[in-house]
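Box 3.1. Reading complex inputs
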Amino acid sequence: MSRLEHWRGLALALLALLVALAPLSLLLTVFGDGVALLDWAFLSGTPEQAGRSGGIGPIILSTAAVLLLCLAIAVPLGLGTALFLVEQLRPDGRLNLGLQWALDGLGAVPSVVFGLFGHRVFVVELGWGYSLLAGGCTLACMVLPLFIRGCEQALRDCPHSYRQAAAGLAISRFGYLRRILLPFAAPGIAAALVLSAGRALAETAVLLFTAGYVMRWPESVFDSGRTLAVHIYDLAMNVSGGSPASAATALVLLGFALLIQLLAWRLGRRPAAFAR
Amino acid sequence: MSSSTPLFLRHSADRLLRAASLLCALAAAVILLLILLFLTQASWPLLQSPGDLLGAVWQPSKGLYGLQAMLGASLLSSLLALVLAVPCGLLVSIWLIFYAPATVARAYTGLVGLMASIPSVVYGLWGLVVLVPLLNAWVAPGASLLAAGIVLALMILPLLMVQADALLRESARRHLPAALCLGVSRWAAIRRVLLPALWPRLWPSILLQLGRALGETMAVLMVAGNVVQWPGSIFDPVRTLTANIALEMSYASGPHLQALYLSGWLLLVLALLLMGLARLFGSRT
């Protein structure tokens, strides 16, 4: 039996190795193809020849702008929702059940559908055109359920005895939130925020239909601008000879994504893979 | 707020807080309703004649908007991804828990976490630069249903493995000592006791990952070849519903645009159905 068991272990290890080959080859490819182009001039420069040469300065700026807009909308809305779910609702109530279904539903909506929705509402109906603002708003809708779930978890981790003690001292609910609950949950909330930013950073399809793919330096939130992910896609698919620049951009995006994951991992107690 | 919740004294700030947080919470529900509403409205003219939409021919210039082949491609590539990812994920999780040395297992878990954080467009880029040429050397043209299935499988694997790992550990804690006491070998215990115990509880996450695979756009768009057809084999290029939206959205107008919105509506309904099923399964076990 032990000999058979030995072979089983070996076979499983081989399978695991085979599976691991894919991400390893991905990292090697992106690093190998991209690292030669990567320097300060690339990070700060303006793209030339449809992105084949030059840098990705305006693209990094657009990405940051979209991300900031997205978080500026999603954070207050999400935190408010999480506070309502944890603080104001009976766990067995009908409203709670309905909201949980709605949140799970929103979390299950495919990103391309958010893109269609954002295009219709923000780009066409509200008349913002392809703009950073439209992209940020649509992304905010998309990351909202993820952020709410993270905050909800962080808030629920606060021990019940804290609330009892606060009530015993006749502190108002507002005072309890501000002085006790939120400071306690702050690391968890920060982790949820970072994970949501990571999700928004990785998104491409939504931004194709809402933020557009103009490569100029954006001057206001009503300008169109392309993000890193859109730039990678466009260079790889639509620009012949764009692969090296695409890999270098992918390396930058991957760097940001890993940094974010690491940050979330340090901040929160939950590992990154629970993000969805 | 359970019945044992201590009551706070009422203050005006508290009432304001309650109103404000209620508004926020309703916003999430309202967004979902708005998405449903807008997509239905945008595809309404075409929704009234559902027969035409099931046609096999997609030629927007001739006014033919058959979604059948692309819906098929979406379903096939997602199912292929599940067929690849579920057994692999389960077996590797078993290896990690029962066979691998502790340091190797820790490093491997780190790698899986890293896989979860790679953006989908980077998977697409890797597929385009490495996987497609590799498959092309085997069976032309390389950009195919199989390539899409493999890339999707890699994308859903990390989350499946996290779930499988947690479930396996729990069912091992519950059942493994008893099974071993009966004199069963470890492998037999894993195969006959742990896996059957875990299987029903893995279903919800499998359904959720199926929904994710169906909705994935960029990675599939970059490796699937984007030919609208029913694939004759897994080596034929296909175009999924999501890829079609991303490709044609930039120039579509009129009924063509309505057809794209309709494919989005279809994806939305499918995703919500899968989510509902997953929740039903989840609440029953």
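In summary: The longest helix of chain A spans residues 2-34.
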